[in-house]
Design brief:
The complex is a heterodimer of chains A (552) and B (41).
Chain A (H helix, E strand, L loop, with lengths): L12 H12 L2 H13 L6 H28 L5 H9 L2 H7 L1 H28 L11 H16 L14 H19 L1 H28 L13 H9 L9 H14 L7 H5 L9 H38 L4 H15 L3 H35 L3 H21 L5 H29 L2 H9 L9 H34 L10 H30 L11 H13 L1
Helix pairs in contact in A: 1-9, 1-13, 1-15, 2-11, 2-13, 2-14, 3-4, 3-11, 3-13, 3-17, 3-18, 3-19, 4-5, 6-8, 6-15, 6-16, 6-17, 6-20, 7-14, 8-9, 8-15, 8-16, 9-13, 9-15, 10-13, 11-19, 13-14, 14-15, 15-16, 15-20, 17-19, 17-20, 18-21
Chain B lengths: L2 H26 L13
Classes of the chains: A mainly alpha (552), B mainly alpha (41).
Chain lengths: 552, 41
């Protein structure tokens, strides 16, 4: 594959597929999906889940790949420039700056979670995390929670930084350096090379743990309810009544939506380094399918099965409320009881580390590309700017660690809310502003498989409507309790946590900076005679879209 | 484990395994296109 951007290009099609898959596969696949499914209808959860995959995940994935490749054709590689092109103007362009905000700000905290995984892997490899198997399950879960609190600094602000070198700081330093190293090596030699190695390694680690979990049988004959069959039954037994609950559909759609990394600003950037005739329809489907394989076939079989086998149904149900409680409180207890538990614990957390680093790497590249093309920075200069911003962001999350409130605030508003905004803008620009016929004609260029005709209707009407309904549902169910938890119900005795205020300052500061850089970039692009507002439609696209319009 | 749970599990896992395998089969059996320098407009 050749380059169309100052030396940056993918080495092969498999390379970009694995890089996008690596971006999508993260902790949520192994920790969030099983808990979400078990809490929302078990096997029945898979019905709205796969419907959302078909109606939202696959179409928005195709849209984002197409937008990115078309942007690259016009010489752009960042979300603001590419969305300005597809949305034909300043509004879409400035909305596109959220497509840089999301990966940048999510990186501020995601790399911390990544370093926790590495820290846990190291601890297991060097003898475990010190949970006493002789205590009650509740005491073991509590001990695991205390270890997690000590690792993350959740007890008090500044506890990770004050008083010498906390181990978490060292693991943060290692993960940060690794991320920066692969970013600096460039697209093909850095990100692609790493993902080509890390993705199979991640699958191998997961398969090792899966085989171990599925061969556990009933470890304690006195507790026949704690068996592999009971664990699988807990995860997969369908409760069809849950399908009548809107929250089940919301949870299933949210799981698909956040898991696939659509609306994250990553795919649009990655695809912009493709050539105009490079295949994207099958590539997009393959990346999505890879994510589903890790989520359903591996995540859905391992996590809760192991938890039920060793903790029992009651303790498992009590500890699957969130990604952190499942992954860092419940599962460490499981490894204490599992034969060769330290080995499998190390393999498991190393796998989570690989899942996290392939995602965090993908968050740096869009920001770097944005600074390169908006400010005219060199590869080295843009890498340094991104490194500086990320160090500042990481130090903020490191310092304001009490209760993980700052992390949660960034995750809620940028890592969740803003993704809806970016994905919504993308699908509307794609199907309504640019025009669905022209957009699909562009998507089909060089395609190895055709996009079924029904997707013209789905992309134009169903996906945007579905997204809006789910977004409104998300706001309806999540905003009031969130606001109440932040302001303490307006009670002066429980004032707003200052971490929330500082996190909001970080968000607003980042938005302002990105808007200013977008404005500077727009002036530079115009001065260079680039098609900033997408006014010059290529002739070949005009012709093929007319043909598609006639067919449909 | 109930038969319904088994049915849902097998269907879901087999679906994603078959889809993923088919996608990689199609990708890997098609060689990458040779480099082309005239790709931007």
């Amino acid at each position: 594959m050749s380059s169309n951007s100052n030396g940056q290009a993918w080495g092969s099609r498999l390379g970009i597929v694995l890089a996008v898959s690596g971006s999508a596969v993260g902790l949520g696949n192994f920790l969030r999906f099983p808990g979400n499914a078990a809490e929302n209808g078990g096997g029945a959860f898979l019905i709205p889940y796969f419907i959302a995959f078909l109606l939202l995940g696959i179409p928005i994935g195709w849209a984002e790949w197409t937008m990115g490749r078309y942007g690259g054709r016009k010489g752009f590689h960042s979300a603001p420039a590419i969305m300005g092109l597809w949305g034909r103007g300043a509004v879409a362009r400035y909305m596109g700056s959220f497509g840089v905000l999301v990966p940048l700000v999510v990186y501020f905290y995601y790399v911390m979670i990544e370093s926790w995984c590495l820290s846990y892997a190291w601890s297991y490899a060097s003898g475990g995390i010190g949970i006493d198997a002789g205590q009650s399950v509740a005491a073991q879960v509590a001990a695991s929670g205390q270890y997690f609190s000590a690792t993350t600094g959740a007890g008090a602000d500044g506890s990770l930084i004050r008083g010498g070198w906390h181990p978490t700081l060292i693991f943060w330093g290692i993960t940060f350096t690794l991320n920066l190293y692969f970013l600096y090596r460039g697209l093909s030699r850095g990100i692609e090379t790493f993902c080509r190695w890390a993705m199979p390694a991640m699958a191998l680690c997961a398969l090792i743990v899966l085989v171990r979990v599925l061969t556990l049988g009933t470890p304690d004959p006195n507790l026949p309810d704690q068996s592999v069959a009971a664990g699988l039954n807990f995860m997969w037994n369908p409760d069809f009544a849950a399908l009548g609950n809107f929250q089940t559909w919301l949870a299933a759609t949210g799981q698909i939506f956040f898991s696939l990394s659509v609306g994250f600003g990553v795919i649009i950037n990655y695809a912009s380094y493709l050539k105009k005739d490079d295949e994207i329809v099958l590539a997009s489907l393959t990346s999505s399918a890879t994510n589903e394989f890790f989520e359903v076939a591996l995540g859905g079989m391992i996590t809760l099965t192991a938890a039920v086998v060793f903790l029992g149904l009651v303790a498992t149900q009590a500890n699957i409320g969130g990604t952190f409680s499942t992954g860092f409180s419940a599962l460490p207890v499981v490894f204490v009881h599992m034969p060769l538990g330290n080995f499998f614990g190390a393999v498991w957390f190393f796998m989570l580390f690989l899942a996290a680093i392939t995602s965090s790497l993908s968050m740096l590249q869009p920001t770097k590309a944005f600074f390169e093309e908006a400010l005219g920075l060199s590869h080295k200069g843009a890498t340094l700017v991104v490194a500086g911003l990320c160090v500042a962001g990481n130090l903020f999350v490191l310092w304001f660690s009490k209760g993980l409130v700052a992390l949660d605030t960034l995750d809620f508003w940028v890592g969740t809310f803003m993704i809806f905004v970016v994905a919504g803008t993308q699908i509307i620009c794609f199907s309504w502003v640019f025009g669905v016929d022209k957009a699909l004609a562009e998507a089909q260029r060089g395609a190895q498989i055709g996009i079924p005709r029904i997707f013209r209707f789905i992309i134009k009407y169903v996906s945007p409507t579905y997204l809006i309904v789910i977004f409104l549902g998300f706001c309806w169910y999540n905003l009031p309790p969130y606001v109440e938890s932040v302001i303490g119900g307006g009670d002066p005795a429980t004032p707003t946590d200052r971490s929330v205020i500082y996190a909001w300052l970080v968000i607003l500061g980042s938005i302002t900076m990105l808007m200013v850089v977008t404005a500077i970039g727009t002036r530079r692009w115009r001065a260079a005679g680039m098609d900033v507002d997408g006014e010059r439609m290529p002739d070949d696209l005009q012709e093929s879209s007319t043909q598609i319009g006639r067919q449909t | 484990m109930t038969i319904l749970a088994m049915l849902f599990m097998c269907t879901a896992v087999l679906s994603v395994v078959v889809l993923t395998s088919w996608c990689y089969y199609r990708i890997l059996r098609t060689p990458d296109k040779p480099a082309d320098k005239s790709d931007s407009c």
